[in-house]
Design brief:
alpha/beta, Rossmann fold, seven-stranded parallel beta sheet, globular
Length: 212
């Protein structure tokens, strides 16, 4: 059995505590995303010193079971994000499939904020929205974050990554050779939103470097 090192009980200590220059890592993925995400989290080996928040295009019934499976198999705490909960270092949060997930700073802490997208919106069709997660995280941290865009069809996340890169955030796109579907990373790269393009096996080590 693994000993979890992420906080389960909302212990004191804000996100990004310590000497980390960044406050949060945000990750977006769609088709082909679950195995790519699992690969990154396994490769991390140990939790980061900041929270990780993930928007994976997936129905609500699957996001909770996905979080539960990862939580049972990994040394870090993985959970489906609850509305207004504080984001804790070392914990991985999965956006619920029935709502878009954003990040806001409230009372000096970064918190997860759920919203139900309007019927017929892009978020409701291909949700949870990666653009919304990335944009809200950028606003809440003033660019003190790392954004990672993984395999998937379409362009969700690309527009927000451009704004993040322009604001000085560190942005990473998965490379073509390791993507199941190169659509979303390609859109971000072609728009100028990716400051780095990395193969999947290199991403975990880079996250450790950037959050140390």
């Amino acid at each position: 059995m693994h000993t979890k090192t992420g906080s389960r009980d909302g212990a004191r200590g804000g996100p990004g505590a310590g000497t980390a220059a960044i406050e949060v890592v945000v990750v977006g993925a769609s088709a082909g995303g679950p195995p790519a995400l699992e690969k990154i989290l396994i490769d991390l080996g140990a939790p980061l010193a900041v929270p990780i928040v993930i928007a994976q295009h997936m129905p609500a019934t699957f996001t909770r079971s996905f979080a539960g499976r990862l939580d049972r198999s990994l040394p870090m705490r993985v959970r489906e994000a609850a509305h207004l909960e504080a984001l804790r270092p070392g914990v991985v949060y999965i956006a619920p499939g029935d709502s878009d997930l954003g990040i806001e700073r409230r009372g000096g802490e970064l918190r997860a904020v759920r919203r139900h997208p309007p019927a017929g919106s892009a978020g409701s069709l291909h949700g949870p929205s990666i653009d919304h997660l990335f944009a809200s995280a950028g606003a809440a941290t003033r660019g003190r974050l790392v954004a990672v865009l993984l395999t998937g069809m379409g362009n969700d996340g690309a527009a927000a990554m451009v704004h993040l890169a322009l604001a000085g955030a560190h942005t990473i796109a998965q490379d073509h050779s390791t993507c199941a579907i190169f659509g979303m990373p390609r859109a971000a790269i072609e728009a100028g939103g990716a400051r780095e393009v990395l193969p999947l096996p290199a991403i975990a080590a880079r996250l450790h470097d950037l959050s140390a």
